[in-house]
């Protein structure tokens, strides 16, 4: 299981922006079991990179391949399989269903391809400190709480790669560490890779490789 | 893996436009009802007016002639049927047989001899035997035979019985008429003349004429009239249904004259079928309109739920699975709408059969199978248009 980036550059970036980048216009291979840390200041294309890897957007030059299959050639159905079986993501902007409860939001992902039984939702929620919020509509939860919902949701499915796009932006250190711990455990369970993009280095993420975007 | 659609149903926002949804359901129901009722009534008319007129052997026999107008008056050729006319008519699918009615082309006089002092100029005609309803075995003639068997129109006998008393002639029963020996005198050119004996061997309800064997008339037309090939002024047509609208419009188009009374039913049928065809088309239009309204409703629903649907696709839900399941939501509604229309149609048919037609045996209180087939087809059509629409809209969101 490999994610490969070949000479990748967003079409809306000019060539000068690749200068100094360790990702753009480089050939990179990410393997299962690796912990990749991508550090990048605002506006350097962190979310773009995550969206490209997840197949949400394709405004880039170069190639991204998953197991030697070019993402640009994926059909809508291929992406559905890719997102439910192989790659999971925590979006920076969370993307929850505002009118559904916390539990329903997580269950919508779990039922699609369940890696865990339904009881695991409560267990994880309690571990991250949102056990009492399961019945609340997600839109009335705080950002911090919503961020934890998004994290738990991403852990419900099997995956080879877990993409994290500033997953702790609304969490304090203690909650962040807690959540990181959970994600590391879950990644280990699947022998999966984590690709973690953030503004700065975070000490409690034991990365195996570090890139500056 | 069985993914449940239940939690997703709540993500489709339908709440605020319930009105337009119900309007489209009702519209669809009315359209389907109109369409089904029209088809059933169309079939009722076929069964009521089509079946009844098929007589004894299952055929109608009617005679047609060319309409004589001021323009064609005196031009014998234009008022007679030629070979091509006959060929054309017999090639029509609604015509099962054509026989020309050939008349005498010489002077014929008929007298009743001593018993009834009655004598008149007459005409004779001949027709293919298979077109005559009553043909006794002795209805034949060979050259040299001085007896001619005659098939006589029962209408003519009736007319005779009406005027006979006024002329001091005896009225005749059908049995007596057959026993009266008449004398038929044929006159040719140059004083040529020959008298034959004749008697009525059968009375015909079908043919309004005096029919003699073809062999005789062919011979006599040659001998007395010097004509080989006599053209017919009337044609007898054998048809499964004299009221067939196609048949009637063909006659109308060719300007052929036909016994109006016999085809009156046909004209009524033509008009009624026209009305119900119109209603059926109207029903179909309403169905299309309702389906369009429904598709607008669907578009609105998907536009309103766009964010949710997009997020589902983002999470890894298959667009194909979503389309199938979103459109599946409407299966019960569609089936219910069409079934309701079907129940109303059945009620209409029962009431029509029972109250308007007094349980006539030609009709059935139950719906015709084609109505049921149409109903099934409509359910299929609605589901298909629905599925395609949802799929198209969802793939746009990917």
Question: Which terms summarize this structure?
Answer:
heterodimer; A: alpha/beta; 5-stranded parallel β-sheet; 32% helix; B: 398 residues; alpha+beta; 2 domains; 6-stranded mixed β-sheet; 5-stranded antiparallel β-sheet; 13 helices; ABC_transporter-like_CS (chain A)
Average pLDDT of chain B works out at 83
Q: Helicity of chain B, in percent?
A: 40-55%
Would you identify the regions of chain B where 5 or more consecutive residues have pLDDT less than 50? 51-56
**Spatial extent as radius of gyration of chain A:** 17 Å
Report strand order across the widest sheet of chain A. Answer: 6-7-8-3-9
Which word captures the global form of chain B? elongated
Please write the string of helix (H) and strand (E) elements of chain A. Answer: EEEHEEHEHHHEHEE
Quaternary organization: heterodimer
Shape of chain A: globular
Percent range for β-strand residues of chain A? 15-25%
The greatest inter-chain interface is formed by: A-B, 22 and 21 residues
Transmembrane segments (chain B): 22-43, 275-298, 331-352, 367-387
Protein name (chain B): ABC transporter permease
Keywords (chain B): Membrane, Transmembrane, Transmembrane helix
GO molecular function (chain A): ATP binding; ATP hydrolysis activity
Walk me through what this model shows.
Chain A is an alpha/beta fold. Helices cover 32% and strands 22% of the residues of chain A. Chain A has helices spanning 46-54, 76-86, 102-110, 119-127, 143-154, 173-190, and strands at 2-10, 27-31, 35-39, 60-66, 69-70, 87-90, 161-165, 193-198, 209-212. The longest helix of chain A is centred in the last third of the chain and has 18 residues, at 173-190. Chain B is an alpha+beta fold and 398 residues long. Chain B folds into 2 domains: 6-52 and 267-397, no CATH class; 60-240, no CATH class. Chain B has helices at 6-9, 18-51, 76-79, 83-91, 154-163, 174-179, 214-223, 245-254, 264-304, 306-315, 319-328, 331-356, 369-397; strands spanning 60-66, 97-103, 107-111, 119-122, 125-126, 147-153, 181-187, 193-204, 210-211, 234-239, 256-258. Chain B has a 6-stranded mixed beta sheet. A 5-stranded antiparallel beta sheet of chain B has the order 5-2-10-1-11. In chain B, helix 9 (264-304) runs parallel beside helix 13. The radius of gyration of chain B is 35 Å and the shape is elongated. Residues 51-56 of chain B have low confidence and may be disordered. The interface between A and B is medium-sized, with 22 and 21 residues.
């Amino acid at each position: 299981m490999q994610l490969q980036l070949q000479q990748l550059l967003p079409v809306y970036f000019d060539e000068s922006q690749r200068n100094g980048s360790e990702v753009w216009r480089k050939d990179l291979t990410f393997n299962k079991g690796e912990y990749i840390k991508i550090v990048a200041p605002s506006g350097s294309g962190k979310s773009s990179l995550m969206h490209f890897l997840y197949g949400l957007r394709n405004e880039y030059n170069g190639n991204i391949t998953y197991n030697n299959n070019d993402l640009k050639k994926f059909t809508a159905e291929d992406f559905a399989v890719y997102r439910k079986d192989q790659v999971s993501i925590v979006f920076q902007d969370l993307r929850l269903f505002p009118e559904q409860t916390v539990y329903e939001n997580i269950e919508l992902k779990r039922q699609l391809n369940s890696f865990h039984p339904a009881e695991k939702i409560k267990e994880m929620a309690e571990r991250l400190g949102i056990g009492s919020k399961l019945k609340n509509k997600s839109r009335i939860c705080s950002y911090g709480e919503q961020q934890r919902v998004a994290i738990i949701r991403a852990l419900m499915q099997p995956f080879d790669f877990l993409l994290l796009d500033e997953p702790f932006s609304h969490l304090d250190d203690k909650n962040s560490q807690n959540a990181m711990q959970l994600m590391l455990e879950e990644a280990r369970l699947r022998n999966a890779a984590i690709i973690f993009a953030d503004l700065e280095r975070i000490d409690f993420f034991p990365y195996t490789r570090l890139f500056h975007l | 893996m069985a993914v449940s659609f239940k939690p997703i149903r709540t993500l489709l926002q339908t709440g605020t436009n319930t009105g337009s949804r119900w309007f489209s359901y009702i519209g669809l129901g009315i359209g389907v009802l109109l369409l089904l009722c029209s088809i059933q009534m169309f079939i009722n008319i076929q069964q009521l007016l089509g079946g009844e007129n098929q007589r004894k052997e299952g055929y109608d026999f009617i005679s047609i002639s060319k309409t004589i107008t001021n323009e064609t008056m005196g031009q014998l050729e234009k008022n007679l049927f030629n070979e091509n006319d006959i060929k054309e008519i017999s090639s029509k699918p609604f015509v099962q047989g054509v026989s020309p009615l050939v008349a005498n082309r010489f002077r014929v006089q008929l007298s009743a001899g001593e018993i009834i002092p009655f004598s008149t100029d007459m005409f004779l005609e001949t027709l293919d035997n298979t077109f005559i309803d009553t043909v006794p075995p002795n209805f034949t003639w060979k050259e040299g035979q001085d007896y001619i068997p005659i098939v006589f129109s029962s209408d003519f006998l009736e007319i005779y019985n009406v005027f006979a008393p006024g002329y001091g002639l005896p009225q005749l029963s059908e049995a007596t008429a057959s026993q009266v020996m008449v004398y038929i005198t044929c006159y040719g050119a140059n004083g040529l003349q020959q008298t034959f004996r004749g008697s009525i061997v059968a009375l015909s309800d079908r043919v309004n004429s005096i029919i003699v064997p073809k062999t005789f008339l062919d011979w006599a037309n040659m001998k007395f009239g010097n004509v080989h090939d006599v053209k017919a002024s009337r044609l007898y047509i054998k048809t499964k249904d004299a009221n067939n609208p196609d048949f009637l419009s063909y006659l109308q188009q060719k300007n052929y004259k036909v016994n109006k009374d016999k085809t009156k039913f046909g004209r009524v049928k033509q008009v009624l079928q026209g009305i119900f065809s119109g209603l059926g088309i109207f029903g179909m239009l309403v169905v299309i309109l309702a389906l369009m309204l429904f598709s607008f409703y669907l578009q609105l629903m998907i536009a309103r739920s766009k964010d949710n649907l997009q997020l589902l696709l983002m999470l890894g839900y298959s667009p194909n699975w979503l389309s199938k399941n979103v459109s599946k939501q409407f299966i019960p509604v569609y089936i219910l709408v069409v079934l309701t229309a079907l129940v109303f149609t059945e009620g209409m048919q029962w009431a029509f059969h029972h109250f308007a037609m007094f349980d006539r045996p030609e009709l059935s209180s139950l719906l015709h199978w084609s109505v049921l087939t149409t109903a099934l087809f409509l359910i299929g059509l609605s589901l298909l248009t629905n599925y395609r629409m949802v799929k198209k809209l969802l793939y746009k969101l990917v």
